[in-house]
Structure formats: structure tokens, C-alpha cells
Amino acid sequence: MEHRLSKRVHGKLGLLVYKRGMPVATGQIRDASKRGLFIATDYTDVQLNQTVELEFRFPDKQEKQFRRLKAHVVRKSDNGLGVDFEGVENDGFTISSLMQWLKKHHMPMAYFPVRRKAY
């Protein structure tokens, strides 16, 4: 049985993953909480506890500004990355806005589509 400290919100929103200030991968948020996210991606060149930046924007809003959050990688799987916001400085308003947007939108957004490796 899984134990979570905060409620998860399911949704889909494309994003870019940055390492050391450089974009390194695309992904899609699949679920989120006030404490972290699960990102569907095929990117694997990241270590546990490594800090990454995540860039996204809300496609239906009038503002076209991109938002960034910092997070620590806490889980890696074949399907993506689990990241945690604890221990890094973030704007709480951005996290709250992301949670509210995901609650309202359940359709996939294709701004940064996840690429799968061909086998």
C-alpha cells in the first residue's frame, strides 16, 4: 500500500527538463502534488537526488510566460521520473497554479511531446 503525504492530482502537461541550465529532455507531467511530480519521459541520464529544473507554460492562459520549478529526482523508472520540491527554493504560487490547472484540464497537451525510443 502506497502512503503519500499530500494528495495527487492527475493530468497532462508538457514540459522541458533542464540540467545545469541546459534543456536535456522533453516530458509530460502525469500527476502532481504540492510536494512533487511524476514526469513521463524516456530520459535516463539523471541521478537520484540530482537537482533538475522543469519548464512549462499553461497553454490556455492569455499569458505566454514560461514557468520554472526546481526539483530533486527521487525515483527513476522505465516510464519516467519522480521529482520532489522539498529542499529547493520554489515559488509556492507557481506550484499552486500548476495544481489548479491540472485539476481543470485532463486532455493531453502536445507542446513538448514525449518521444519514445524505437525498438
Unreliable parts: 108-113
CATH H-level superfamily title: predicted glycosyltransferase like domains
What would the CATH topology be?
Thrombin, subunit H
CATH class: Mainly Beta
* CA-based shape: globular
**Strand order within the widest sheet?**
1-2-3-6-5-4
Which band does the percent of strand residues land in? 35-45%
How many E-type strands? 6
Domain PilZ: 23-91
Protein name: PilZ domain
InterPro entries: PilZ_domain
Pfam family, one: PilZ
Overview of this protein structure:
The chain has 119 residues and is mainly beta. It is built from one helix and six strands. The protein has one domain (9-104): Thrombin, subunit H, CATH 2.40.10.220. A six-stranded antiparallel beta barrel has the order 1-2-3-6-5-4. Strand 1 (9-19) and strand 2 (22-32) form a beta hairpin. The longest helix is centred in the C-terminal third of the chain and has 13 residues, at 92-104.
